[in-house]
Specification:
Largest sheet: 6 strands, parallel
CATH superfamily: HUPs
Shape: globular
Strand content: 5-15%
Number of helices: 6
Radius of gyration: 18 Å
Helix content: 40-55%
Strand order of the largest sheet: 1-6-5-2-3-4
Structural class: alpha/beta
């Protein structure tokens, strides 16, 4: 029993060390590319709005609107000429991208500068498809502080020049940060195994000159 307990303790300790190491790598690699102010963000080819929850009415939830508003600010400041909206549209009754497109149009963003990815089912899929389907090579990611490190880590490991702009406005839950501890492990595994998204499809280059 003592030997079994020792093995269990060793295994648990190794697992905790692995979790700490992966999270340290994610945050360490992403930190130099994080910005809290849209005005200070560098220029890029595309502004990316990762998917987030929508309300029962179909409207984007507050955390989603915060991402969109930051993207609008980046666009109007001339930080990038195009906006890519990614999200889950896996069923007819769940659509994270079309309501955001409507919001962007209502706020003066030209339709020709808005691109939609209906198969951004998770952050890895969003970043993979941004690169492979939409031909994105440089990107400004508009998202909350709990999510940005993982998004930037994945994007840069996939070969994109990625920067993140913090969209925190006060709708953040502590559970969001706890969830990221384990989501970072999944991101590392996805990258290590070169996971391919559920859907790929034909290429839709946003900026043909970047290909």
């Amino acid at each position: 029993m003592k030997r079994l307990a020792s093995f269990a303790a060793l295994g648990l300790g190794s697992l905790l060390l692995l979790i700490l190491a992966v999270n340290a790598a994610v945050y360490g690699e992403a930190r130099p590319y994080l910005y809290n102010d849209a005005a200070a963000a560098p220029h890029a080819g595309v502004i990316l709005i990762p998917g987030a929850p929508v309300l029962p009415s179909g409207a984007p939830a507050p955390v989603f609107i915060d991402r969109v508003n930051t993207a609008i600010e980046l666009y109007t400041r001339g930080k990038a000429p195009k906006i890519l909206v990614s999200g889950d549209n896996g069923t007819a009754g769940h659509n994270e991208v079309d309501p955001v497109r409507d919001y962007l149009l209502q706020n003066g963003i030209p339709d020709k500068d808005i691109f939609l990815d209906h198969a951004g089912f998770d952050t890895y899929s969003t970043m993979y498809r941004a690169r492979e389907i939409f031909g994105v090579s440089s990107v400004l990611i508009a998202s909350q502080s709990f999510h940005l490190p993982r998004a930037i880590f994945i994007a840069r490991r996939l070969g994109m020049e990625a920067y993140g702009v913090n969209t925190d406005v006060g709708h953040i839950l502590f559970s969001n940060y706890v969830r990221e501890v384990f989501a970072n492990e999944k991101a590392a595994f996805d990258l290590l195994t070169h996971r391919r998204p559920m859907y790929e499809g034909e290429k839709i280059p946003i900026l043909p000159d970047e290909e």
